């Protein structure tokens, strides 16, 4: 059962999964968040968030056989954002957009 | 094994990987988590090397374990209300606030306890940090648990007795079934050096010859460049050199373009093929105290086999092999070879784990230090418990009020425990600070012959040790006073007019018991320290057979190639002549290996022995005629070597007294012959014994060959004796040497006393730590006795006042208190000595020239502890004797 609450980090994780295209894997998501969201993401925090998003119904995952030898023969977790997850992301986007409307001059002014 | 030049596939460390498997066992996504970490591990290994990657992997697993543990506990607590309430109800915070208020009221008392606990925690953590690289942490190689040391079966004091021929290594590689790889390095690398010229001032480098698969077998990958190729490892192969990270940064300013360039060593061009990772420190593991700069290929070939025992061999066991099976395998292999090749000599192999070889010799002393650190923390616990217990009457009224208002016994105990744990935690912080400072000092110590000292640091596991010892100390010191405080009869205390009750007989007995325990523990510690100090004195008093004071040493490595041995001898004679003419220079000598440094051994026979008789093992020294006088080695009989002993005159030698007595027992050795192979060398003189290996080893048999008749040396050590200042002499000598050969490095000068210091450095190192512990122990004993007696006096003011009112003199009051102190100290001494004398039997092997029952140590220790005890007891006793009985009785 999907609850519609989405925390900031949860939103970033869902967005990052969507950004990964053909490779929606946990390691890619972690690298993406560290590189582009400029935050230190511990492995434990990421895995807990993925489990929580799955519990909320925003995320599905499946284990696929890894094609690369670097994974030591271990499978890879393919992450997929569900319809409910997409809807939650849209809601968050709409709230942010409406709150940001009209603030561009203020935010873009040189500090 | 991977082919030479390729790096082995990295594997995450087994224990950490198994922990992770257990950690994610119940998680449906577990297998993918294992894969995630493996993938990142490979990435880190490619970027930073296998060693760093394995530590990274361990840290990741620990972080994940802590994260999962925290998540599990918080969900468990949420499901278990009562436990949650007990841990998180306001009472704890309230207790902590009360504690903080108390410490603010009595900052001196709190600070003292924090410092005392800090000393204990610091001692434990520092010693653990020193022990860790040697005894606990894995060696900095790939799967170090599978690396073994394969040595010849002789005496470890003589390098030739424990090294092997290169033919042995080739046979091990070809026929042994126990190894994934077997490799080796040229053990006598200190006999020669490499003069680096061009790119700045000439510099003397220490280089080690290694088999071309050396790094492959150890699992070390260069951070830049590549490994040696088999062609480079062949006899007369292309000259290639691998830089240590230290040289790469110091000399070449970490310029990655150095790889592939050619540098000039000993006047010849060598290609820099790679740079080793900073984690690989050859000398730290294999040759402590000798900083290695470069590694070069050493040929495992027929040519090097003719040099005899030269190799130190390291093997990597196969997964299904053990040290025992490898030993059996090599024994069978060697006996087969001995049968097939009856003339083959040097066939022996002793297999042991590489870690045992690296740290084995230091284990006893490290365990002694660990025991000492444990004793210090025990002393700290007793001391702090004593102080807290002594102060308990002051708190009894406050506790009585709390009990009367409904506080349970448990709450009272908890309050006291929270306070002591707070103090201990603060002490833990101070301890970590102390340990960090000590560890940094130790890691920067140079010239100490203890392996892996540079790796000493306070890291994660040491912090855990510090935290644990702080918490255990907190609980240990808090529990006794807490229980006694909670047992107090509150009604009696409340009626006693607010001054707090005095100690009952039981508590006083307990306090005095703790003082006895402190003296006993300190006695054990000081006994070990005292015996070690006496051993050290004995070592320093050993007559080395030469005089280090006033002598400076250089290693000479002429850059020019000599056309003939005569030309080389003439060059050195000119060196000796010009240096002897310098103002203030008393004498100049040359030798292939100065005492207390390098050594090798050869086999000789006396002229009366048959070729079938077993030969005698000797230390060969190749010296010039000035050496004996420059070192002040007494000439016992006969004559010295002379420049007139040349390749055109009869070969001559000097023997030391031990060699003369062993080779020609009961006869005069002068005029007799010593056989080296089939060549006879005439003995022309006998000189005093020199402790070549170290002051704790016998001199052994020594034979001095003239450098004018035997040229079996790579470089020569120069010794110059002068009564002038070292810097002045060094400058003059350097200038003269540069005038003789501009490309010869001349700046690296070693005062001979520094060599003595290095050889006794492990003992000095341990002694320093033990001395520090001893001082801490004495301070704690003094504090303990002073604290207990002070409290006892203030508690018994009324009793003392009454005694003085009915006629007791100040003198008798003082005497009775000092006597009480003496009784307690003596009781502690008797117990401590009994325990200590049993304990020191276990470290008897570490003592030199003293017995565990050394009377001087026992008398000194007894005097010291009694003195400190009586001094600590005298101040409160004097204060008690000044009691104004009239005023006290009116109170």
From TrEMBL, chain A:
**Please, which domain of life does this record's source organism belong to?**
Bacteria
What is the protein name given in its UniProt record?
A: Helix-turn-helix transcriptional regulator
Domain Transcription regulator PadR N-terminal span(s) in chain numbering:
14-89
Q: Which InterPro entries match?
A: Tscrpt_reg_PadR_N (IPR005149), WH-like_DNA-bd_sf (IPR036388), WH_DNA-bd_sf (IPR036390)
